[in-house]
Each structure stands twice: as structure tokens, then as C-alpha cells.
Specification:
Layout lengths: L1 H47 L22 H27 L11 H37 L3 H24 L3
Helix pairs in contact: 1-2, 1-3, 2-3, 3-4
Length: about 180
Amino acid sequence: MDAIKHNTSSALSSETNNVKRTDRHFGIADNLVVVAALTSTASFAAAFTVPGGFDSSDGSKQGTPFLLSKPVFQAFVVANAIAFSCSSSVLLGHVALLFYRNRYVEVSPSEQAYIDGKIEDMYYLTTWALMTMTIAFVTGVYVVLTPSIGLAISVCVMALLVIAFNTYKDRFVRS
């Protein structure tokens, strides 16, 4: 009788741990989706409200960005497109994971590994989206402030230093 109680107790404990693990995994995915949604919204808006504005004169250049020929502006466009693509991929990945949300403990170990891999992919894509959004910000600020080169460089360096410090602060600050 004690063996039955122990096995039942062990099975319930294992199931409780699996549910907690599931909640943790999908909690991470939910947080990533919030960040990805904000990133994709910002990068989408930046694509249509480009630094420097658009040419509004009549003619063949109407509607094109004024700064289109500047390499820094082109870097802004590429970085912004990568940020949007990565964050949108996270959103699509989350939609795919919704199918498994309430069935995680019921699926096979290989499907659980697949789900875990998708959540890990979402993490890396969100990281890339944030990094490239930062690059887009820095290049956008730089291209607009180029007439005041000192201010442009100062703002860009400050932004990059804050990001570098937050990314690598454990190496700078000792406990």
C-alpha cells in the first residue's frame, strides 16, 4: 500500500513539475512576444517615417527619401528591415506555439524538444531584433544630425555605451 501511495505521489509531483516547467517556458515566450510586438511596431513606423523625410516635389523623385543616397541612411534601412523581420518572425513563431500551449505535457519528448527549440529561436530572434533596432536608431540619429557632427557622434556613442554596459555589465562591475 505504501508503494502505491509513493508511486502516486511521485507521479503527481512529476506532473506538477512538468506543469511548472510548461508555465515557465510559455511565460518566457509570452514576454518575448510583448518585446517583439513593440519592436515590430517601432520598426514598421520607422520604415514609413524615415529620418530626413520624403521629397514632396513633383517629378520622378516624389515620395523618395531625401537621404536615400547616403550610406548611413542605407544602413538605417537595412538594420530597420532586419529588426522588423526578426520581430515579426517571433510573432509568427508564437502563433505556431499556441497549438501546443495546453498540450505540452501530453506531447512526446521529441515534440517537447521542438517546442523548446522554437522558444529558444524566439529568444535569439528577439535579441537580434533589439540589436538591429538599436543600430537603426543610431544610424538614423547620425544621418539626421550629421550637420552637427559633434552632436551626432556624441549621441551615437552614448547610445552604444549604454547598450554595451547593460549587455556586458557583469564584466565591468564586480560583486
